[in-house]
Amino acid sequence: MASLIPPKRPHKVGAPKLSLQLGGAGQSVAHYDEQPSGGDTTIMPAQPICAQSESERLSELQQAVKPRRVSAGESDLMKLSMSQISGGERRGSDDASLTSLNMDDSEMRQDNLEFISHLGDGASGVVSKVRIKSTGQIVARKVISTSPNPAIHRQLLRELNINQTCHSPYIVDFYGVFFDAAEASVVMCMEYCEGGSMDAVYKEVRRRHGRIGEKVLLKVAECVLGGLAYLHSRRIIHCDVKPSNILVTRDGQIKLCDFGVSGELINSVAGTFTGTSYYMAPERIRGQPYTIASDVWSLGVSLLEMASNRFPFPPEGEPFLGPIELLTYITNSPLPQLKDDEARGIRWSRAFRDLVDRCLVRDGKARAGPDVLIMHPAVKRSMQTPNSDIARFVARVWDWDAK
Ligand SMILES: Nc1ncnc2c1ncn2[C@@H]1O[C@H](COP(=O)(O)OP(=O)(O)OP(=O)(O)O)[C@@H](O)[C@H]1O
Ligand SMILES: [Mg+2]
């Protein structure tokens, strides 16, 4: 617990307060910015929905990657480099705030990647921290086992390469993808986010009987909405917003990863596709068209989960539900709301509650999109929070100062 106690250095004037609260049952609750301001809630207009079917979206993505030149040689088919795909579109010199990494064809091979440590396992792949031997750069490598069918590899690589044309401070930088024939696997290299996923962060905080506070959660909301708005401008729908796909860098930036149709495709190719995710919006569960507002629902579920230290469906105290009942519950039952926990001194601001409520509007057509919610007063307030505050938070969670 001691590690979650804020460092004993004087606060700068105007710097956000970090304080420790004593929870019930003798537990101390480290709560970041636990004094939310209330009352600055305004009514947000509903956003007109631009409905786009799954097949339209897929064909758009395919159009987007069409001009790519793919030679007939097997190795070229399996290894589409950044230079082939995006040409001059790769970030310009005015983009210095983003990590710059040029991996060319010769660098995109397994024997140029030196394993450092294991970062995590997903349903379809294994993520590791690796060093690019030829440049010394540290990146995250995700390896996904696939079927040996070259046509599937081609499709997978094309869809994954859409990532390389995305450049936003709210999106994890994607460096390249190649096919490792020896292992029959697709290998992706992306920006290494040292703070890990928000899933890992909130579970570590929970393990230490803490709770992530509103200021950090609002920053997560701000950055995810920023990332979704960017993707929307590129006509991409994320489709898999959840805490494990929201990553934090050492300097406190919060970024989205694993977006687009590739997630589903990968899972189906890897044989792990179940067709469902409990973060899916009700319209998606019902098989209706997926829109960018569906991603907003998933953000709402994620915010509730991180705020309450547990997946919010069904609410605490209700009996365990099997997968089908759980999906039925999500589409029909009363929606969970952020609850204060007076005993532990946890009070959420009205603005934050309102933001979560707006994400969790059950009717997809009435739910606001990211470009509307980004103007929400709670999000505007979050824009005043510097990344350095998030960097301090993540350093405390992982005890970096003590190491
Ligand atoms: N770029 C990255 N930098 C640091 N850690 C990462 C990075 N990408 C993924 N991770 C870690 O690896 C874990 C596994 O990621 P992966 O995307 O394979 O699965 P997942 O998102 O956890 O779950 P699922 O497969 O169900 O979507 C993540 O939870 C995260 O902790
Ligand atoms: Mg993931």
UniProtKB/TrEMBL annotation:
Residues 113-379 form the Protein kinase domain. The keyword ATP-binding applies. The keyword Nucleotide-binding applies. It comes from the Eukaryota. GO terms for molecular function: ATP binding; MAP kinase kinase activity; protein serine/threonine kinase activity. ATP binds at K142. InterPro entries: Kinase-like_dom_sf, MAP_kinase_kinase, Prot_kinase_dom, Protein_kinase_ATP_BS, Ser/Thr_kinase_AS. Pfam families: Pkinase. Its EC number is 2.7.12.2. Keywords: ATP-binding, Kinase, Nucleotide-binding, Serine/threonine-protein kinase, Transferase. Belongs to the protein kinase superfamily. STE Ser/Thr protein kinase family. MAP kinase kinase subfamily. This is Mitogen-activated protein kinase kinase. It comes from Malassezia cuniculi. The lineage of its organism: Eukaryota, Fungi, Dikarya, Basidiomycota, Ustilaginomycotina.
